[in-house]
Task: structure prediction
Amino acid sequence: MTRKFDGKELVIASHNKGKLREIAALLKPFGVSVTSAADHDLEEPEETEDTFAGNARIKAHFAAKSTGLPALSDDSGIMVDALDGAPGVYTADWAETENGRDFPMAMEKTWTLLEEKNAPLPRTARFCSTLCLAWPDGHDELFEGKVEGSLTWPMRGDQGFGYDPIFVPNGYDITFGEMDPAEKHEISHRADAFAKLVAGSFA
Ligand SMILES: O=c1nc[nH]c2c1ncn2[C@H]1C[C@H](O)[C@@H](COP(=O)(O)OP(=O)(O)OP(=O)(O)O)O1
Ligand SMILES: [Mg+2]
Result:
């Protein structure tokens, strides 16, 4: 049996401002008051697992235990078929530099690898998201979502975050970076997982 969310406050166990903005927008219709990991002065736990689900559980359980409140995390990434699913769980790591994250650099690295491989067009990829809703007593629920598309070069658009400027979802000719946020929320991997969370835990 799926446990229902019946609290008033939900902690979003993420330090990514782009994600926080998207999750707050997705939760808006449900009258839940949301706070972030930063609002509770939480550190960023190390993401030591090699699956989205494993890392989503680490983040949500850490926040739930630390705050005594239910917490929702998202672990996500982009999987490129011609790169055998890379960068996948390591999407954020590929952008890591001494001075913080550099996503243009990570996108260029990804495109260069595809060029070096002479990967055929379209260069298919998908964004994946696993949401974990965890309670302070250790119970949790997991929900998975994805969106299929292909990569394009050069980068286009300044909406969204992360890899959005090179991802064109199937059925569109614009990137997530060029898309209105409300439209991204209709079709994104996070929205897909979120619909399952709502059906399971909020309905
Ligand atoms: O809709 C998206 N549009 C573009 N890029 C995206 C998206 N969703 C995930 N991504 C990329 C960037 C992100 O940095 C990485 C996930 O890494 P991931 O560890 O789950 O998130 P994070 O470290 O940025 O924030 P946090 O762990 O605090 O929730 O995949
Ligand atoms: Mg992370």
Remarks:
- The CA atoms of residues 65 and 146 lie 28 Å apart.
- The domain at 9-202 is CATH 3.90.950.10 (Maf protein).
- The chain has one domain: 9-202.
